[in-house]
Write a structure and sequence with these properties.
InterPro entries: Alcohol_O-acetyltransferase, CAT-like_dom_sf. This protein folds into two domains: about 160 residues, Chloramphenicol acetyltransferase-like domain (Chloramphenicol Acetyltransferase), CATH 3.30.559.10; about 210 residues, no CATH class. It is about 30% helix and about 20% strand. The protein has ten helices and twelve strands. Strand 4, helix 3 and strand 5 form a beta-alpha-beta unit. Helix 8 crosses helix 9. The longest helix has 21 residues. The protein starts with 9 loop residues before the first helix and ends with a strand.
């Protein structure tokens, strides 16, 4: 239900949905350096020089995100690139120059997780550098942690970025020719197919039906209401995420499958997309016992499309494509969640899946940003649509 008074803007809606779905998805890579304490500040100054140059060459490292209330947002270039050079300090603002003493690597991860919640999606930058000293390690060893929003790059790109951040600055003369700026990733509209898929049509139709006032008596409002907390509940600045292990036993009560799926989506957000999608598929097959409740199950699962053939930059752009599969229930009768998860994971990373996605996207730009999987259960008379992640809604088309 929308907040009373002023409507929420796009960023607020994204923040609220993110808070409902879970933590900001990010990547943290930790490197260890052996350096005397007296030289640490000089090293951080060198890191700051590297960051300044990287932001100049790669505008994506200083960009924000626009249209954040949709599944496929766009980049917002920061034309004051880099806007952090005149702060009167030898350290770059995204470098945390205060050395934080912690007990273990686990505490480093926890601290970075809390800081990641403070990324300003509207303005950028969507990454940071933190420095930590471990109490149980020699005094001359420090952890340098790079934390970056997953939409900026993938794991290999983050590793490449950390390597360039830590590398000794170039001694090349400032008058030498500088490399040309790499462009931001393409507008995501260019990567979307003009003709919608069957599943896309089902999703759109289901959501329209659920939000149509004439259908509320039939659906009883299932998934139709956008539940946005009041704007006065917005929390600014970093917050520590709640981390826990989630175990859901769907076999206990088949009649509560919708409720359990919705609750699971609220808790884990877009984490473990392949495992998540495959488990739901196997589960649907398990509950379809004899009454032909489901005919076919269709899924979309993100697959990495980073490649030089698509001109994906080495740093920046976590491009993906959506791998679609339609599986008859009859083929799933003998599967368990574990066995089908393994098969699905193998398929997602197979040459066959990559070839199909190549064919579908070879005439477009380099993919779309990863968010969360969409699971569609196609039944004889009902199409259930469930999307995990930021809006975590469960819909039903009672056609």
């Amino acid at each position: 239900m929308a907040a009373e008074g002023r409507p929420l803007d796009l960023l607020e809606r994204f923040q609220l949905a993110q808070a409902r779905a879970g933590t900001v998805p990010y990547i943290t890579i930790i490197g260890v350096i052996l350096i005397p304490p007296v030289d640490l500040m000089q090293k951080l100054a060198e890191i700051s020089v590297n960051i300044h140059e990287l932001m100049r060459v790669h505008p994506i490292l200083v960009a924000g995100i626009d249209d954040t209330d949709i599944r496929r947002p766009k980049w917002r270039p920061n034309h004051d690139n880099p806007p952090f050079e005149s702060n009167g300090s030898m350290f770059h603002p995204i470098v945390e120059s205060t050395v934080i003493k912690v007990q273990s690597i686990a505490h480093v991860v926890g601290a970075e997780e809390a800081e990641a919640q403070g990324f300003n999606l509207a303005t950028g930058p969507l990454w940071r550098i933190g420095v930590y000293g471990l109490d149980n390690e020699p005094p001359n060893s420090y952890c340098v942690a790079l934390t970056i929003h997953h939409i900026v790059t993938d794991g290999m790109g983050a590793l490449a970025l950390l390597e360039q951040v830590m590398h000794p600055p170039s001694t090349t003369s400032a008058t030498s020719a500088r490399p040309r700026q790499q462009p931001l990733p393409p507008k995501t509209q260019k990567t979307m197919r003009m003709q919608p898929s069957v599943m896309g049509t089902i999703r759109k139709g289901a959501r329209w039906l659920l939000n149509h006032k004439m259908s509320l008596k039939v659906t009883q409002g299932l998934g139709a209401t956008k539940v946005w907390p009041p704007s006065d509940l917005l929390k600014d600045g970093p917050r520590r995420a709640d981390v826990g292990h989630i175990s859901v036993n769907f076999g206990q009560d088949e009649n509560r499958i919708v409720e359990r799926l919705e609750a699971l989506g609220h808790q884990i957000g877009s984490v473990h997309s392949v495992l998540h999608t495959a488990a739901v598929i196997a589960l649907a097959a398990a509950v379809a016992t004899g009454d032909d409740t489901f005919d076919t199950i269709g899924t979309e699962t993100p697959m990495s499309l980073r490649s030089e053939a698509r001109n994906a930059p080495r740093i920046g752009g976590n491009y993906t494509g959506m791998v679609e599969r339609s599986i008859p229930i009859a083929k799933l009768k003998s599967e368990t969640i574990a066995s089908f998860t393994k098969k699905t994971n193998n398929y997602i990373h197979s040459r066959e899946a990559k070839t199909k996605e190549d064919e579908r996207t070879k005439h477009t730009a380099a993919g779309i940003p990863t968010w969360s999987p969409t699971v569609v259960l196609i039944c004889r008379s009902t199409a259930y649509v469930w999307q995990s992640g930021r809006d975590a809604q469960f819909s039903a088309d009672c056609g």
